[in-house]
Amino acid sequence: MKNRMLMSILALVSAALLLVFATFAWLTVSQEVNLGPTTINVLDIDASAILEYSTDGIDYLPVDQILIQNAVPGDIFYYRLIVKNTGGIDVSTNIFLSSFIDGVVNPLGYLSSNSLLDGVLLTASNTDNSFVVNSSLLRNILIGSDQSTARIMIASNVTLIVDEEQTIYFTVSISNAIGNDFRNLALSIAQIQVQLAQE
Q1: Going along 131-184, which residue ranges are E strands?
Q2: Do 106 and 45 share a domain, yes or no?
């Protein structure tokens, strides 16, 4: 009887220790992947730029990050970039998305060697000219081979008159062709580059 009581107490203490160590292991391994805000770099001239997001492509609100996560095939993320010439001369601009960072939503969830660059489509247009990007996979339109420094042009030769603004619209959508091997993935676009050159 005494041995049974001792074994019961030992089993209870062991279970409690197992719970404590499992909780500690969970907290040690579980970390939020912080993909950070999107930086807008305006080069060579005075201009301002505001990034906005919409769930429906109609009503936009300012945001500080382009982040695709917890999405399913068919989801669409609407963005627009409003660029205003605050300098003293008219300019022409080229605008790029750059610095693509892969991540996972839950480090303990499903992991895959895939990248959302192979499952996200980009469409872009602007209010100044006819330059468009027509529903292309991000991977297929990258300029450069290293995704952390590669970029994608979303607007070309957009004319900015002094004190006027132009709007660049772009959407990222999850391709209907991807499967479960893309779940739990995240993609951040860490930079928008607005390159201005005098006309």
Answers
A1: 133-137, 151-160, 165-174
A2: yes
Q: What is the pTM of this model?
A: 0.77
On whether both 3 and 88 belong to a single domain, the answer is no
Helices (H) and strands (E) in the chain, counts: 2, 11
- One domain, residues 136 and 189: yes
Q: How far is CA 138 from the centre of its chain?
A: 12
* Domain residue limits at 3: 1-30
Phi/psi class of residue 36: alpha, beta or left (left: φ > 0; alpha: ψ in -120 to 50)?
A: left
* Co-location of 185 and 93 in the same domain: yes
112, 105 contact by CB (below 8 A): no
48: CB partners within 8 A, 6+ apart: 42, 83, 84, 86
**Residues 9-36: tens digit of each pLDDT:** 777 777 665 655 544 443 333 333 344 5
Q: What is the mean pLDDT of the chain?
A: 82
Total domains in the fold of the chain = 2
Percent of the chain with pLDDT over 70: 82
Domain identity same for 131 and 109: yes
| Whole-number CA gyration radius for the chain | 24
